[in-house]
Amino acid sequence: MILITTEEIAVYVKKEIIRELFTNVKGFNHCGVIDLWISGKTLDRYISKVSQYFLNETKEQLAEVYNNGLKNGHTLFIRKSEYEKILNNYLSEKYNVEQKCLEMVSFKNSSLKQKKEIQLDYISKLEWTKTIKAEYMLYDAMDKEKNTYKVYNDTGTKRKYPFKYNKMNIKLSDLDYTINELIECIERTYPIVSKKTSSKERKKKRKEETKKKNQKKVTPSNKIYEESLALNMLGVKYRLNMDSMIDCVKYTQKQCKYNRINNCLRSDKACYPYHKECILNNKFMAKVMITSQEKNKIAKKEIIKEIKTVGSNVPSSKPKLHKIGVKDFIIRGNVFRCMHKLHQIQNVDAEVKVSLNNGEDKLFQISAGYCQQCNVYFIMESTYQELKRKGIILCRITDSKTYAKGGFMNGSKLAQESILMQYGYNVSQTVGLSARQRQKILAVMIDNKVLSKSEIISYLDFFIRQHGSRNNMGIAISKWEDDREFVEHYKSGEYTKFGVNAIYRR
After folding, report:
1. How far apart are CA 174 and CA 109, in angstroms?
2. At 149, phi and psi to the nearest 5?
3. Cβ 396 vs Cβ 329: under 8 Å
4. Which tens digits make up the pLDDT trace of 270-324?
5. Which residues of 30-60 are buried (b: 16+ CB within 10 A; e: fewer)?
6. What is the CB-side half-sphere exposure of residue 469 using CA atoms within 13 A?
7. How far apart are CA 380 and CA 230, in angstroms?
8. Cβ atoms of 23 and 15 closer than 8 Å
């Protein structure tokens, strides 16, 4: 007499159920029998009573796994794993045995981790690259999580592991599809074909890349020097225009063994011989001084010629001092450059009047640039800031950006900004002009007939109307109203004689 334990019976029943229900069905996307039964398909095979009992008693649980799988895109392997858990619970309760003995029997021993994301639906959504080699074709891709996929299609010897997922080898027997089906799926994504280059081509490419790395970037020859503040300042100091200064730069570069296409091999920067760090800075400065002396000699010869021809008195050896009047225009910036490229900028000594903070007017001598055709003066931003700290500059001033926009002709018109602002008039708290300073500017404009009283009042009325509805402009509007009342009662020349001693606001 042979005795059989309940554990052995439970294991035997599980084996039979797995054999009957967990097998794949051809012609139905290789789906399991359980999936067919749940979806209501007719089964063309015999199913034992133990399998029928299992299906009927766990129908709701199996259907839930099936529907969740379709909804979340679970693979067949994952669904089968969930079905097996339901089967283990069912047999454990039915035969009153522990699940440990049942877990020894499984439908497949493949790793879930290897098969999680390598199904055809997921593979068809990846961007594949196809590399054609002599012995095989290689398909590779990478998903958003940076997982790598490699598929080998051998034309010669068959590989044991044609599929690699994150460097893990996967056997053909572990897949729910054949290798041919996998390749067909990849080919339908129209993979990018990568030609395998020869060793000679690869060496040539590496040489070209190395050559490019070693090459220095070419720096534009004249532009960097024209925009250089240091070079401009040297030109002003030695009374040389920018073309002469650039000639001195190029002369020095020719003698330097470290210069390569306007770049310094020592510092790995652009070549600046006018910087003190340059090893040929002394030679550059010597060339500048020699050029300056030569230019002055030529100028003296021309003057002597003119004296002999005309018979006039010999002019002073000192250069002409330009007096910048109230109606003259000054452009402040970091480069002396006329908006008309063909115009020559002369380096001159100029005199400009500044209203000091104590109310007095004083003349200051400055270095400037002058365009004779446009009748416009140019000063450095640093010079402007120095004069501004002393007081109010009594002439029209604008910045280089506004000047370059256009709307300016022969120093007479600049529509981009208010003429009051050009003379330094401003009610901003940031600028911080006092009432005396603001009204001094307006008085100077009236006395010099830059604008009439009615024109200034019209400007101030416009400012008040434009900003009257804004709550944060109360202080500014109050200043405009005070200044308007001052202009209304002002008599020409009164300011310079007596100053502003009365407050006209009522």
Report:
1. 9
2. -130, 130
3. yes
4. 788 888 778 888 888 888 888 888 877 766 666 566 555 544 444 445 668 888 8
5. ebbbbbbbbeeeeeeeeeeebbeebbeebee
6. 1
7. 11
8. no
pTM value? 0.35
Structure tokens at 298: 């030529």
Amino acid at 143: D
**Is residue 152 a contact partner of residue 160, using CB atoms and an 8 Å limit?**
no
For position 270, what pLDDT does the model report? 77
pLDDT at residue 476 tops 70: yes
Total count of residues recorded for the chain: 506
Amino acid identity, position 311? G
Question: Are 334 and 229 spatial neighbours (Cβ–Cβ below 8 Å)?
Answer: yes
Distance of alpha carbon 422 from alpha carbon 329, whole angstroms: 9
What is the per-residue DSSP string for 386-451?
HHHHHEEE-SEEEEHHHHHTS-B-TTS-BTTS-HHHHTT----TTTT--HHHHHHHHHHHHHTTSS
The structure tokens listed for 271 are: 């070549």
CB–CB of 330/395 below 8 Å? yes
Q: Fill in the DSSP letter of residue 273.
A: T
Q: DSSP label at 239?
A: T
CB-count burial class (<10 Å; 0-12, 13-18, 19+) for 400: middle
Tokens of 189: 């994504």
Pick from 256, 114, 261, 90: which is nearest to 176 by CA?
114
Q: Do residues 300 and 314 lie in contact, with contact meaning Cβ atoms separated by under 8 Å?
A: no
Segment (H or E) for 149: strand 148-154
